[in-house]
Amino acid sequence: MSYPRIVEQLIEQFVRFPGVGRRSAERMVLWLLDRPSDESDQLARSVIDLKERMRFCPRCNNLTDEPLCRVCNDVRRDHQVLCVVESPKDLIAIERTGVFKGIYYVLLGSICPAEGRGPGDLKLEGLKQRIREDGVQEVILATDPDTEGEMTALHLIEELKPFGVKLSRIGMGLPVGSSVEYVDHSTLTMSMNSRRAITI
Question: pTM of the prediction?
């Protein structure tokens, strides 16, 4: 026996979410049925607001519901250091560490020939404009340590050489608290290749 059609339709919508299976979707729908109507209305309004009001920041491509994102609006940031990331999720991850106080530029993708994404799909003109206008001295390339991220970083290095800015790449290595014997091959290789000299 199946659920009523309206319930099934909502379950099918939730199953489309990343990481949500049929059982989880059923639990969410049944939970919603138990909640007051105003909570359902608020959820629906939040989804509509997300689609209607959320956009990319015109200066850095971060997500924002204001004319500029919170990072670009923060006058305390160091505009001489710019970190390039692939997606807004990467920007958020770096911000959560609390260690970076510069500005960002979000590429909104990476080079991936297998999926038909080439250098022309990257938002490079906006990046170059940001470097010129903000007087950037250093560009940190924080693309993913996978094949696509490495291809993207190599392309960015070539594109940004004429600007004469310092280019750096985030360190890749072992996760904190891990054990060398249990780390996967590619991570260990990256760790060895990106080693730094120890000053004594």
Answer: 0.78
Look at residue 191 in the predicted model and tell me its pLDDT.
63
Which residues are within 8 A (CB) of 32 and not within 5 positions of it... i.e. 6 or more apart? 10, 39, 40, 43
Distance CA 63, CA 129 (A): 19
Helix, strand, or coil here: 31? helix
**Phi and psi based region of residue 5 (left: phi greater than 0; alpha: psi -120 to 50; beta: remaining):** alpha
Considering only residues 60 and 200, tell me which one the structure prediction assigns the higher pLDDT.
Answer: 60
Instruction: Give CATH 1.10.8.420 domain extents, the chain.
Output: 5-53
pLDDT at residue 100 above 50? Answer: yes
Share of the chain above pLDDT 70, in %: 86
What DSSP string describes 83-111? Answer: EEESSHHHHHHHHHHT---EEEEE-SS--
Is residue 87 within 8 A of residue 106, CB to CB? The reply is yes
Pairing of strands 55-56, 63-64: antiparallel
Give, in degrees to the nearest 5, the angle at Cα 123 between 190 and 130.
Answer: 95
Assign domain 5-53 to its CATH architecture.
Answer: Orthogonal Bundle (1.10)
CATH, range 78-169:
3.40.1360.10
